[in-house]
């Protein structure tokens, strides 16, 4: 008589994790879906029990058994800006070659939206994530860690970051840009920049400007710093307000550093509308090197970053992690300073 083969071991379930961690199954669910609602000590206990059992929640049914869904997520602020579209396009190409589907989230610079979108992606079984920036709710990275999937932060790069990063040092880039304007003799600066709240990249750029000015004993006057929407219109309105204030309290700035090319193009247009010559009376710089920036008159001085390369490197890193490797994150990219027609020596006093 043939002996019956022993039943295969039962896969661990949430109830087993709950028993091992001495919590309820509802608490196990909260740890993985709403970690901010669980005390850190209890959360750590549940995660330790889940790791020991090799258990991971998943909404993808049979894909859980295989631990493969062939889905990766990209979390970006917006598709209105071509720089993020370039990153996504490069990632899409790299993942498609491996038969992996890319899910996309646009969180519109809202931390709450980013957190909600990441939770939704995890529920759909993404195997990896690429997330723009570090300025997110701490629980966003905690919930990713709870699922034990690889992720990478794009467009940020700092030596002490706890995250794998693919991007560039925003502070260093703007320090270098500001020093170039200082070398041209400029000492009176204005800044038009995107909102710094919840945006680590913009915060770093502003720190870079301030650090370079401080080296020369200079600073940004409060009335010369404008934060707002990254649009041509805001660039125009900000420059007009800045120069009209200078008429009352002087002196007029000779160089305007803008947080992106849209703002800089707006500043150039408004300066010309006010009868100023660019760069003879006023130097203006941007960031991103958008396609239109070389076609405005005069062509825009800006910092160029290879956005497709950021997407490609992010995809390569995640693919290596999905293959079971543990590669180091790539070194930071170095933005190129593209000097065109909107910068020149400071005008004589």
Automatic annotation (TrEMBL):
Which InterPro entries does this one have? Answer: HTH_LacI, LacI/GalR-like_sensor, Lambda_DNA-bd_dom_sf, Peripla_BP_I
Q: Does the keyword Transcription apply?
A: yes
All residue ranges annotated as the HTH lacI-type domain in the record:
12-66
Report the leader peptide range: none
Q: Where is region (Disordered) located? A: 329-349
Instruction: Identify a single GO molecular function assigned to this protein.
Output: transcription cis-regulatory region binding
Keyword DNA-binding among record annotations: yes
PROSITE patterns linked: HTH_LACI_2
Keywords recorded for this protein, A-Z: DNA-binding, Transcription, Transcription regulation
Full protein name? LacI family DNA-binding transcriptional regulator
Q: Which organism is it from?
A: Azospirillum griseum
Q: What is the lineage of its organism?
A: Bacteria, Pseudomonadati, Pseudomonadota, Alphaproteobacteria, Rhodospirillales
């Amino acid at each position: 008589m043939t002996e019956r083969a022993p039943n295969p071991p039962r896969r661990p379930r949430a109830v087993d994790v709950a028993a091992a961690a001495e919590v309820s199954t509802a608490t196990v669910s909260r740890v993985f879906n709403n970690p901010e609602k669980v005390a850190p000590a209890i959360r750590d206990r549940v995660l330790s029990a889940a790791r020991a059992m090799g258990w991971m929640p998943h909404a993808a049914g049979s894909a859980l058994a295989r631990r493969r869904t062939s889905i990766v997520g990209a979390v970006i602020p917006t598709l209105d800006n071509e720089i993020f579209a370039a990153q996504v396009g490069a990632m899409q190409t790299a993942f498609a070659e491996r038969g992996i589907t890319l899910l996309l989230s646009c969180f519109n610079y809202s931390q709450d939206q980013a957190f909600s979108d990441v939770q939704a992606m995890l529920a759909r079984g993404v195997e990896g994530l690429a997330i723009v920036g570090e300025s997110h709710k701490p629980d966003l990275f905690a919930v990713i860690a709870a699922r034990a999937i690889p992720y990478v932060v794009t467009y940020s790069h700092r030596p002490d970051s706890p995250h794998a990063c693919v991007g560039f040092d925003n502070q260093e880039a703007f320090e270098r840009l500001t020093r170039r304007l200082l070398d041209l003799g400029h000492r009176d600066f204005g800044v038009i920049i995107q909102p710094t709240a919840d945006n680590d990249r913009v915060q770093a750029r502003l720190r870079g400007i301030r650090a370079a000015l401080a080296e020369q004993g200079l600073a940004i006057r409060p009335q010369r710093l404008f934060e707002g929407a990254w649009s041509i219109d805001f660039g125009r309105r900000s420059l007009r307000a800045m120069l009209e204030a200078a008429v009352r309290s002087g002196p007029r700035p000779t160089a305007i550093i803008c947080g992106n090319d849209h703002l800089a193009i707006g500043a150039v247009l408004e300066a010309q509308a006010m009868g100023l010559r660019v760069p003879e009376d006023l130097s203006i710089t941007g960031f991103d090197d958008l396609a239109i920036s070389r076609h405005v008159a005069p062509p825009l001085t800006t910092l160029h970053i290879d956005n497709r390369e950021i997407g490609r490197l992010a995809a390569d890193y995640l693919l290596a992690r999905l293959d079971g490797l543990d590669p180091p994150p790539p070194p930071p990219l170095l933005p190129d300073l593209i000097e065109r027609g909107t910068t020149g020596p400071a005008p004589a006093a």
